[in-house]
Design a protein that fits this description.
Blueprint: H1 19-54, H2 64-101, H3 104-117, H4 122-148, H5 165-189, H6 193-201, H7 206-217, H8 219-234, H9 238-243, H10 263-270, H11 277-306
Length: about 325
């Protein structure tokens, strides 16, 4: 009776790593750790400095920190949502025009122009909004109040200066437009060409091809770009501080002179003259903004990771 000898399988050779690969891997790892350290340091600073505001006696902080921060949270979210509602459809339309409609030379030049909007300083947007857009918005505010005043958003009375939450939302929309456009454009360009050609071969028009192949493929990119733009709008400071006429009221009226403040603008305006417990209160409001922005960015990353394996072929 013969036995068959089983030869052991040869061991796989370990991949040889070059010095450049090890340096790059170490640099990338170090950069990631550094970001976490900086983020943790910022969070620790905000927590330590904001703690006295949360434990302050009632006579030092009437109503408590919640009463102080609640209107600011409302104003921050209201202005950011207005910007998101205005900017997202326009950004998707611009991205589709660049990726699927415009000639190559025009698309390249338009891409540069849209990306250039992201490089414009916030103070320039603030000047444009306060000195140009605000006066031009007064007739629009009057028209909205006259014909749509039954809607709480346009109840009026309209502001005579135009420095309203509506103008702030429009300026923020222009500011976040390049962010959403850039993300949506890159995602649309990655749509599998076989899917587009198959739709066209079946007799679909260009719009039908975009609706059936491009938009479903780029849905996660649109959402994540919108979330990133929302994060930018939430933290905007100078443009809002220069435009908005703040009264501290909590209202959804977008054309009135009574407007809620935002967290970032309130810190910028109040911090130079603040002292004592007021500084801790402002830092506590900054901590709230930090948490809100962190949650928005985490939601964007979750959406991207949730659909990262989606290639359009499944």
């Amino acid at each position: 009776m013969t036995t068959t000898e089983v030869k052991p399988e040869p061991k796989a050779a370990k991949p040889v790593t070059q010095l450049g690969d090890r340096i790059f891997a170490g640099s990338a790892k170090g950069a990631g750790i550094a970001i976490l350290v900086v983020l943790g340091g910022v969070a620790a600073f905000l927590l330590v400095e904001a703690f006295p505001a949360f434990t302050a006696p009632e006579e030092e902080l009437p109503g408590g920190i919640a009463v102080y921060v609640a209107p600011l949270i409302f104003g921050t979210l209201l202005s950011a949502v207005i910007a998101l509602v205005v900017a997202t459809p326009l950004a998707v339309a611009v991205a589709l025009f660049i990726s699927h409609y415009a000639p190559r030379r025009l698309a390249q030049g338009l891409s540069y122009i849209v990306d250039l909007l992201a490089a414009v300083p916030s103070i320039v947007y603030g000047l444009w909004g306060a000195w140009t857009l605000a006066p031009l918005s007064v007739p629009l505010s009057i028209w909205l109040t006259d014909y749509l005043g039954w809607i709480p958003l346009f109840a009026g009375p309209p502001s005579t200066t135009g420095r309203t939450m509506l103008v702030v939302g429009l300026v923020l929309a222009v500011m976040i437009l390049p962010i959403i456009t850039a993300v949506a454009r890159e995602v649309f360009l990655q749509t599998p060409s076989l899917h587009e050609e198959a739709a066209l071969a079946l007799g679909a028009t260009r719009w039908e091809m975009i609706r059936m192949a491009v938009l479903p493929f780029g849905r996660s990119g649109i959402i994540s770009g919108a979330m990133l733009g929302l994060g930018r709008a939430l933290g905007e400071t100078m443009a809002v501080a220069m435009i908005l006429s703040v009264s501290g009221a909590v209202t959804v009226n977008l054309v009135s002179s009574e407007n809620p403040a935002t967290i970032a603008a309130n810190i910028a305006l109040q911090f130079p003259e603040a002292s004592g417990i007021t500084v801790n209160v402002l830092i506590a409001s900054g901590l709230v903004l930090f948490v809100i922005t962190l949650l928005v960015n985490m939601l964007a990353r979750y959406i991207v990771e949730r659909r990262r394996d989606f290639s359009g072929a499944n």
